[in-house]
């Protein structure tokens, strides 16, 4: 196992971290009400248990404990639908010995790759960029997990809300145009989602502005890297990083929105400033932050004189009435 320190974040590359993300993320259930109820009962207990295990465990012990936990939940909760029992067998299949050996090999390979990225010019900015985000008022998670093949070939990483886990797919990162920049942008981007989630608190009845969350993650993560680069990199290295970040933004779902808002406001931290004002709201107002009467004045105060729907290119975003 290797733990790579990036500011206050311990990023784990181990057989267990890879297996945690591969087994513990990405599942959805469709079926009868009884099937979904049993799936939810099992998932609420098993997946958090899985993610919370020490990444430094021996993979054989981790998998054995996971199997015992599955059986214990099935027996104690008296889960009986064929749907859930088949699902559990599928999970056990992923934990089999052959896969344990494979993730052990992958953890060595990708830990070496990650160390190479962190030793690069861009990698030298990592700690400073993480510290900059925290200085701006967001508490990044202290733990990240290396994933391989967990979310498909088009996803660099994901903050898994239900598990409070930041997972970065190192195999997909390795195929990107600028792996070092892509890794750090992804880690900070998903870490910012985690920080917003933590600051807002749990509220299943709250309407959410996904685009504002993404806007903050895109702008803030990339600005942190630029600020760090200005302190540590030579001119040519800074140019290379800026080129990489422009490419990354051009491929992101909300990259065009980020570009438009940065151009309109001249402030790459405008979304972060808005979120900090939302965090400070009384509970009732924070619950309603996505409504126009709440969020529009906050955005104006932060320096974005926006009207909704906000149009950029042939797209638009809006808020709740």
How is this structure best described in words?
The chain has 321 residues and is α/β, with parallel strands linked by helices. The protein contains 14 helices and 7 strands. A 5-stranded mixed sheet has the order 1-2-3-5-4, sandwiched between helices. The protein has a two-stranded antiparallel sheet with strand order 6-7. The protein is globular, with a radius of gyration of 21 Å. The model has no long low-confidence stretch (mean pLDDT 96).
Cα(first) to Cα(last) distance is 50 Å
The main pleated sheet reads as: 5 strands, mixed
Work out the helicity level: 55-70%
Strand order of the largest sheet: 1-2-3-5-4
Low-confidence stretches: none
Oligomer: single chain
Structural class estimated from helices and strands? alpha/beta
User: What does the radius of gyration come to?
Assistant: 21 Å
Question: Could you state the order of secondary-structure elements as H and E?
Answer: EEHHHHHHEEEHHHHHHHHEE
Number of helices: 14
Strand percentage lies at 5-15%
Mean pLDDT across all residues, rounded?
96
Total beta strand runs: 7
- What is the molecular shape? globular
Give a brief outline of the structure.
This protein has 321 residues and is α/β, with parallel strands linked by helices. It has 14 helices and seven strands.
């Amino acid at each position: 196992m290797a733990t790579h320190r990036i500011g206050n974040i311990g990023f784990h590359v181990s057989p267990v971290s890879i297996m945690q993300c591969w087994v513990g993320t990405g599942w959805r259930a469709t079926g009868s009400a009884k099937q979904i109820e049993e799936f939810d009962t099992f998932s609420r207990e098993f997946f958090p248990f899985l993610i919370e295990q020490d990444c430094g465990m021996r993979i054989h012990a981790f998998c054995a404990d996971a199997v015992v936990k599955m059986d214990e939940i099935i027996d104690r909760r008296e889960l009986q639908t064929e749907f859930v029992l088949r699902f559990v067998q599928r999970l056990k299949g992923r934990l089999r010995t052959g896969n344990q050996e494979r993730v052990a090999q992958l953890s060595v390979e990708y830990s070496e790759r990650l160390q190479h990225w962190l030793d690069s010019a861009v990698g030298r900015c990592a700690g400073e960029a993480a510290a900059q985000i925290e200085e701006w008022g967001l508490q990044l998670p202290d733990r990240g997990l290396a994933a391989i093949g967990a979310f498909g070939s088009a996803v660099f990483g994901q903050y898994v809300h239900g598990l409070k886990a930041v997972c970065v797919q190192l195999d997909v990162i390795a195929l990107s145009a600028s792996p070092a920049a892509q890794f750090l942008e992804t880690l900070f981007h998903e870490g910012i989602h985690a920080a917003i989630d933590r600051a807002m608190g749990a509220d299943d009845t709250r309407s959410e502005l996904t685009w504002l969350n993404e806007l903050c993650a895109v702008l803030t993560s990339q600005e942190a890297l630029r600020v760090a680069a200005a302190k540590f990199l030579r001119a040519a290295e800074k140019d290379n990083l800026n080129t990489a970040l422009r490419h990354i933004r051009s491929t992101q779902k909300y990259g065009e929105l980020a570009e438009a808002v940065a151009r309109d406001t001249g402030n790459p931290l405008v979304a972060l400033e808005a979120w900090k004002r939302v965090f400070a709201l009384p509970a009732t107002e924070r619950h309603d932050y996505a409504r126009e009467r709440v969020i529009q004045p906050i955005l104006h105060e932060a320096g974005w004189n926006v009207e909704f729907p906000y149009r950029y290119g042939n797209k638009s975003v809006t808020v709740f009435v």
